[in-house]
Amino acid sequence: MKLLSLLTLLLCTTVATAQTLPKASRTVYKCEEGGKVNYSDSPCLGATKVDVEPTRGLNKSSGRELQGQDVRNERLREGMAEAIKPLTGMNAQQVDQFGRRQRLSPEAQRQCRALDRELPMAEAAEDAAKVGAELKAAQKRLLDARTAYRKLGCD
Predict the structure, then answer these.
(1) Where in the sequence is the signal peptide annotated (predicted)?
(2) 3-state secondary structure of 68
(3) Angstrom distance (rounded) from CA 63 to CA 85
């Protein structure tokens, strides 16, 4: 119970320091359609997932670190998450995701947990699929799971 209270306190602090804008997606999908390659935060059939990490205020030309308030807030949240990691077992990204999911309805939270289990299985099925109908079915399953995950706001 104390762990839940501590986590709730951390989340309240995190929400208080967070900006009101939605969190930028760090997952990008590489989609090939009609011979053209597109990158998007929306999944597509047969997409390749590309994980990206945005820059955090380093100015290449001067070598000095220039940070905005958003980067300072993110680092503060990361520090708090690291401090309570022995209690929660969650890293900073997991704590942020937990906080965002707390704003979802209980049903949406349940669906997100189910999709957390479904996505790795669908990705493995796509990797294992050969060609033809088997591959198309695996890609469709993965696209449906990724689309539902994004639509629910699980990320």
Answers:
(1) 1-18
(2) coil
(3) 32
Contact 145, 138 (CB under 8 A): no
Non-local (6+) Cβ contacts of 85 within 8 A are: 91
Helices 106-128 and 92-102 pack at an angle, to 10 degrees, of 130
- Using pLDDT thresholds of 50, 70 and 90, give the confidence band for residue 19: very low
pTM (global) more than 0.70: no
pLDDT tens digits, one per residue of 86-97: 888 888 888 888
pLDDT digits (tens, 9 = 90+) for 48-57: 888 776 666 6
Phi, psi dihedrals of residue 51, rounded to the nearest 5°: -85, 130
Percentages (nearest 5) of helix, strand, coil residues in the chain: 60, 10, 30
Give the side-chain half-sphere CA count within 13 A for 41.
11
29: confidence class by pLDDT, cuts 50, 70, 90: confident
Tell me which H or E stretch contains 80: helix 69-88
- b/e 46-57 (16+ beta carbons within 10 angstroms → b): bbeeeeeeeeee
